[in-house]
Amino acid sequence: MTKRPNIVFILNDHQAYHGHGANGSIGPLRPNFDAFAKEGMNFTNGYCVTPMCGPARRSLLTGLYPHTHGQIHNENDPKYQHQVYLDNLAEAGYKNYYFGKWHAGPGCAYDHHCEGLSETGYGNPYNTREYDEYLKRNGLPRAQHRIERVFTQDDYDRKNYFPKLEEGKLYQCEDFWCGEHAIGMTVTPKETHESFFLADLACDKLEELAKREDDTPFTLRVDFWGPHQPFFPTQEFLDMYNPEDILEYPTFDSQLEDKPGTLRMEANKPIGDGKNIIYPNPIPWSEWQRILAHCYAHGSMIDAAGGKIIQKIRELGLDENTLIIWSADHGDAIACQGGHFDKDSHMAQEVMRIPLAMNWKGVIEPEQISDELVFTCDIPVTMLEAAGRTFDNPVDGKSLLDLALHRNEEQWRKNLLCETYGHGYGFTLLGRMLTDGKWKYVCTEGEIDELYDLENDPYEKVNLAVLDEYQEQKEKMRNILREKQSEAHDPVDLESLLTGCQNYTAKIKGAVC
Known about the structure:
Alkaline Phosphatase, subunit A; 18 strands
């Protein structure tokens, strides 16, 4: 194909994905994503580069690890010193449109040659002028939600976040950000929710682009604020789930005795004491079934909004020359490893694994599945290659077109490095992860390290790092991790993390480091 393609990128935020529904239980239903993935290539072994929004989102813009681009926490926000794919495409003559959450460092999408809707930081779409105009144009009320359960945090109370959030009350999000730790139901039409608001803006722009007489290529990106909590689906999506059909999550009752302290961190009350998770979980499984039903339903609502965009692309005939990618910035730890709400900066599979699929009509053959190791940094590299471009600086990602078009597949990565710097907000905790698809190794500063056999223990129930018979495998993974760190110019010294591991595991009976 000689004509440069249009590029559409849909990004979900903080998505419960890995493990849910894989244990014989009902899980999040994603009919639109599943249909989309079937029409191109579905990457079933995708990972986020890091478990935090800001760093992962900046990697989606630059194709770089956080240790290189510098956004190691959500809000440390160093200046951009590496090329952003949006700027690269603008230089090549692309028109860029961006709708939704930014949370990727200083400024917003407008600073990178984009039009649309973008706010600095985390943002709140319900406070924007564009949302007010959308409601007026469509004769809709402001989104309103009936609150069923609130998880409280000492830090949120001190900062007076969401002061009107009360169980049993109707609520409208009016704060400067919209990350309430709560479940409830949107009682206004689904079109009042941020996901359908963004989908509508995107569809309007697509209709406008389809009427153009020139053939200038465009990029259109939609970053939903969900399915990140708060979980506020409408009744339509709640009706897709019977809470009683949700079986107890395999690690919900874990005492975490052989796990690092990072997996015990839980600020949300009442399931945590403000610092660590409480065992046994104070909320019974029967109530967790309701919580998960809201989480899954919220995910299905985001799926429907994304599906609306995909359908519009096809309806307008724009899919004839458009690369479309749909993914998430990271996962969600809800209900796992003792029963968390939200996630922290640990590297459990539920947090690290992400959905990822792409199609390009006439270029990528449909019904393809790849279980190769892919991750966040590959996405911007892929978009640039489709446009006939490359980053001006070295990057850490590879083009997914190598897999989709079956080029140089034998040279694809065999091991993957991911990283964390902790949750931030005044707290830094270094951690590194390595996986080859079967084995996974995690080393965290000052904590016991972790080793899992993912083929036989996909829920990471048993930490093999503390068992004598797995010391050879653990050392093998450590050596590969050192190699991958060197390749990625990672400044973190693994030996310093291992020293902390040795000090920590000495406290655990039978542990070997």
